[in-house]
Write a structure and sequence with these properties.
There is one protein chain. The chain has one domain: Up-down Bundle (Four Helix Bundle (Hemerythrin (Met), subunit A)). 52% of the residues lie in helices and 3% in strands. It contains five helices and two strands. It has a two-stranded antiparallel sheet with strand order 1-2. Helix 1 runs parallel beside helix 5 and helix 3 packs antiparallel against helix 5. It is globular, with a radius of gyration of 16 Å. The two termini are 28 Å apart.
Length: 173
Amino acid sequence: MTWTVPEGGRSTGIGDLAVVGERRMLEGWLDWQRETLVAKCAGLDGEQLARVAVEPSALTLLGLVRHMAEVERAWFRRRVAGEDVGAVWPEDAEEGFGGVDAGCAERDFGRYRDEVEAARAAVAGRGLDETFPVPSGKRLSVRWVYVHMIQEYARHNGHADLLRERTDGRTGD
């Protein structure tokens, strides 16, 4: 049997975030964006996920998932938590966008899910005002990382929307 991305539901509805505290709002919006990326891939197999669908771009849905695993690790684990962990895809110099292999789709989704869970653990108990240094010498806050990650997912989810529509015509959030 061919592996496909499982259909998933939403852990949080946007309306549930209307009147909540700042931390819950940031976490909720980030989870909503994470779940949107997975929803864009739901029901597709490795071949479909690895398909270049919007030429001349080489972007693929699987490449986006791989990239976001790398971004989750970079911001939450390496920068915020200061963990000494290497790249998720050390063989890929393109931050996850390269090295896409249809036969590894299930493994790649597993790594993505693992990185999301590790990211959650890395910021658990950290205050939004807590800061950390970045290579430029500046200090950024945990709050800044949440906002940046929501923005990063939103941008790439727009790409995913176009790729999915070109793959099988499916649209929606």
